Structure formats: C-alpha cells, structure tokens
Amino acid sequence: xxxxxxxxxxxxxxxxxxxxxxxxxxxxxxxxxxxxxxxxxxxxxxxxxxxxxxxxxxxxxxxxxxxxxxxxxxxxxxxxxxxxxxxxxxxxxxxxxxxxxxxxxxxxxxxxxxxxxxxxxxxxxxxxxxxxxxxxxxxxxxxxxxxxxxxxxxxxxxxxxxxxxxxxxxxxxxxxxxxxxxxxxxxxxxxxxxxxxxxxxxxxxxxxxxxxxxxxxxxxxxxxxxxxxxxxxxxxxxxxxxxxxxxxxxxxxxxxxxxxxxxxxxxxxxxxxxxxxxxxxxxxxxxxxxxxxxxxxxxxxxxxxxxxxxxxxxxxxxxxxxxxxxxxxxxxxxxxxxxxxxxxxxxxxxxxxxxxxxxxxxxxxxxxxxxxxxxxxxxxxxxxxxxxxxxxxxxxxxxxxxxxxxxxxxxxxxxxxxxxxxxxxxxxxxxxxxxxxxxxxxxxxxxxxxxxxxxxxxxxxxxxxxxxxxxxxxxxxxxxxxxxxxxxxxxxxxxxxxxxxxxxx
Length: 505
Known about the structure:
- By secondary structure, the chain is an all-beta fold.
- The chain has one helix and 38 strands.
- A hairpin with a 3-residue loop joins strand 33 and strand 34.
C-alpha cells in the first residue's frame, strides 16, 4: 500500500473506529445464529462452534448468511465461508467468499469475489471492510463500481452508504459510453451521479478532450465545471481558463479568467477573461481585455476590441472573426482602428467599419469603409470606400494628400506603390528636385487619378479625366490652402505596439 493511501486509511480508521479500539466496558449484543448442524471444535477453543448448512447469523439489525462458519462466543465474533451474504439494510447487500465479523465493533472484513449492491450501483473487489455502525465501507487494493451508465475503477475507495458517496484515490478511471475520465482523487455520489475531482483529471470523448486539476462532473446530465489549469480541446479548437463550465448535451462551454481559445486550422488565438463557446454553431465569444492573434511566421497581427466573436461560415466552412466596439490592431507593417472590424479567414481580408483609420509605414488611410487584403506575410491591396483619404507627412513642410470618392492602394513588399482614385479626385503634393530641394506644391483635381509613389515621394501621376493642376511656389500657397477639405492627421491614435491596442484614444 502506498504511503499517502496508508496515511488516509489510518486516519479513517481513527475517525470511524476499528475493532481493537472498542471499549471493553460497553455492553455488546451477542450474535444469534441458526444452522443445519453444529459442533464444538476443541482444537480451536472451548467456546468455538462449527456451524454447517444454511447458516444464518443475526446481529442487531443485520442478517448474515453462509455455507459454514466458526462462531467465537466469548469474543462475540465469527468467521464464515462460501456464499457469504450480508443484508446490511433494506438497500445494501454484500456478497463474498469469506467473512470475518466482530460483533463488539460491528466491523466486517470480506475477501474473495466481493460484491456490494445498492439500488444505484454494484461494487466489485477482492477485499472489503464494512463498518455497520457508521454504514461505511473501504477497499484498499482495487475496486470496480458499475451503475446504469458508468463503470469506475480505482486502487482505493471509501463508501458512505447513507449519503451514497464514494471517495476514490489512485488510478481512478470512470468509463461512460460517451467518454472516459482519468483522475487522481475523486468523490462520487451514486444517487446523483455527480463526480468531484481533486487532482489532475482528463476526460476524453470522440468530440473533445478536457483537462483540469479541480472540478465536478454531473455524469447523468453531462454538465461540468473545471478549474485550476482547465483545458478543453477538439480536433480544431481548444479553450483554456481558470474556470471552465461545459454542457456536453448542448455543446456549450464557458471560461472565466485567463481565457485562451485557439483555432489550429486557421492559426488564430483569442484571449480574454470571459469566453463562451457554442459547438453546434461553431461560435466563440470573448470579452474583458479580448485580443485576437493571427499567427504568422514572420509577423503576427494582434487585434483588440470590447467583444471578439468567431464563427464558422456555413458556405465556405471557414471562420469569420467579428471585433466590435473600439477595435484596434497592430502588425509591424500595418496598424488600424475602427468601431467594428470583420476578418475573413477564407481570403485573409479585413473589413473596417465606422470611422476606420489605417496606417501603413508613413501613410494614413481613412474612409467610411475600408477593406484590406492580406496574406500571411504582407498586405496586397486596400480599398477605401466613400470619403477616401490618404495622407503622408512631409517633414517640416506639410502633408502629401490624396482624396476621392473611392480609392485603391496597391502594395508591393508591404509598401504602397500605386493609388487609383475613382471619382472626385483631389491631390496635394510637395514636388522636389532629385537632390531633395523643394520645387513647389502641386494641387490637382481630376475625376480619376493614378498615382505612383516610392516612400513619401510621388514618382508619377496620370490624370485620367478633366485634369486641373497648378504648381505653386511654396511662398505663394498659404498654409490654410495646403490642406484639402476634411483633412485630419490622427497619428496620436496610432497603435505603437501590440499592448498599445488596449488604449483607445
């Protein structure tokens, strides 16, 4: 017997009594008996009777049956053999091959093919001790319990018959048609079929795997709560948290504090302090410092909002991520914010709604609605819908500006190289010589414009329709005319690193 189990066993013996601890001064009820035949066996002792055939013992409210027995009248004890039956109560019956019973302490020891049966379960073991005064049982060398749906095995077990509760320890395994549970220490109520576990616990089913170090599981209703390193995973997703609640029938999971949900297929992680998962809908919702991480080898994207919602698109079988209320994201080559953001994993496109702002290198891009096409490593293009505006700062001079009804920014190696303006195009550019000397400020209007840029420098402009362009000497264009209508410079709101996305400015 292992030392921890031995210590627990000795503690329980001290708590509930042991034959040797009984007071000799207590008056004890003698054991009554019936048998087909009996004889005295002088070889064993003067007061020892050998009982054979249809042997029945009655002691207080307990009846015991066997094929043969030795009755020690002076010690008020017996040893019984073959076809042992103990009727402990109206609901508990014990069977075995051999029995020792002490009538003074009402302590029974059964060995060999032991079965203990009550209306909810059957216990199988090779050795069982039963305290009839306290209605408790203990086994210390392996046992198996079977009820209507579950089978449980362990090295050590203690049973409170009145409360219908078992305590198990060492190599505890609960087998259900839907899952298998392995744990170190468990309390199990056979009436309610609720299991409480107090050590490393793993629950495995075809649908998912759950791990925790503390919690409970209602095996009848398939409802559970897990804590201390709680972890839940299926083939595609996993969820962890300080505390996890799970309803297997409805496929609903809830995690609280230090929540992490990972989609291994889409390579997406969502963290926060409160999360919910709906298996049938393929839906996960995270709040309280929620953050989405789109993992990439070279440069991951980090996104925060008050609420993050991840759901599987039924048409594409791909995931959509919804970030709403004060959404901000950061990648070293791309940053942005808006009230709401939607990310489609099917085509790696980011949709930004309600006052969106996007930053790429030295450019600020704004519009009423923004679409960003990305790959794992780079930005491909940006569509700006309605009131589109692109701005870059010219150090100590002002701002290059592009404005139109709709605009498309094309990127190469994560750098903006071409802008297509579609409708109501306006531009302001600072024109320089090759040596960097300022030539003038060009203001232009055209329905459609194609602009080529390299860094902050304009390398070419194509006016597609009805151009009007003027090159002003710097001194001839007042400061208030160098900014297009509705110009705004929002650099103070730009996220500077992945932790800055939690600051809404």
